[in-house]
Amino acid sequence: MRLTVRPVSRADHLSFVAQRPSASHMQVPSWGDVKPDWRAESLGWFEEDGRLAGVGLVLLRPLPRTKRYLAYLPEGPVIDWRTPDLEHWLEPMLAHLRNRGAFSVKMGPPVVTRRWSPEAVKAAIADPDAHRLRDVPATSEEPGGIELADRLRRMGWRQAEPGGEEGFAAGQPRYVCQVPFAGRSLEDIHRGLNQQWRRNIKKAEKAGVKVVRGGPEDLPAFYELYAETAERDRFLPRPLPYFQRMFGALTAEHPDRMRLYLAHHDGDVLAAATMLVVGGHVWYSYGASTSRRREVQPSNAVQWRMMCDAHELGAHVYDFRGITDTLEESDHLLGLLRFKVGAGGEAVEYVGEWDFPLNRLLHKALNVYMARR
């Protein structure tokens, strides 16, 4: 099979994604509008008869004072990753990007390698001899994911190590927490919540917490809580214009692509969160809360409302996004892992992000620069 790669229109890109059960929210055309510091391009994989067989959103970041680029396909491309002739898919992509001036290509195949059930994660956290999730026996393994990693290495791709800040991979998270929805009723999902979650949802209801969908005019209220959360949890917040641009770009593509939820109590907004939707995959994207009146459990109320709405939309998975791989009690992110797993989420390991140096000297220079930041 001979495939060719060339740019496609946004409409063709979006149409192809819409025909699939799901694709990452970072592989739809509008995601390029969220990242103005990158130059976005929609790529298409064409068979010899002209049929479109795959797509990918590539983000091109220029190297200062040069016309060379880092090409990045976050959580993509959207191709047949199980195919036995993967070279026929990736080689024309590399050739196209080399011609575009790319000195290095980074991609994140959306392929799972291992899963840990909520019970397995809880047991690992309680085990004093368990220090990292990756060292704990998985509940299930995906042979195709493990085989894919071996194939990529043989093709010259290099795996980006899951270092990053506080146990998260540099780039997109390799470890995430997902609640499976496929074939489950809302009652099944509620039963999958742990006792603390169910208790907190009931507390919020009794206290009169009301969760509503917001619009772009509510983003400043969300941001006020988000900035407080960033200070409390010690991370660098994105600026308000980022979220305004994100909401505008994604909802222009599809009205449900991004949703904003706010938890109100006695006339005050206590928690807020954003939700992203592509096909049957729903993500909890950004969350924010205040330290005031935490006893009324607004964060649990927001999450449960989003899970209910995701189920109503026909989601097959509710994705809590990144989790820490570290199981040490000293890690301040362990509480976040407990929160997500408590919602019935399983820990999921993806094959991770991979680099292909097209110019080894420039690729090495970039790595040195990133290490010094």
From TrEMBL:
Keywords: Acyltransferase, Cell shape, Cell wall biogenesis/degradation, Peptidoglycan synthesis, Transferase. It holds the Pfam family FemAB. InterPro entries: Acyl_CoA_acyltransferase (IPR016181), FEMABX (IPR003447), PG_Glycine_Bridge_Synth (IPR050644). One of its GO terms (molecular function) is aminoacyltransferase activity. One of its GO terms (biological process) is cell wall organization. SUPFAM superfamilies: Acyl-CoA N-acyltransferases (Nat). Belongs to the FemABX family. This is Peptidoglycan bridge formation glycyltransferase FemA/FemB family protein. It comes from Streptomyces dangxiongensis.
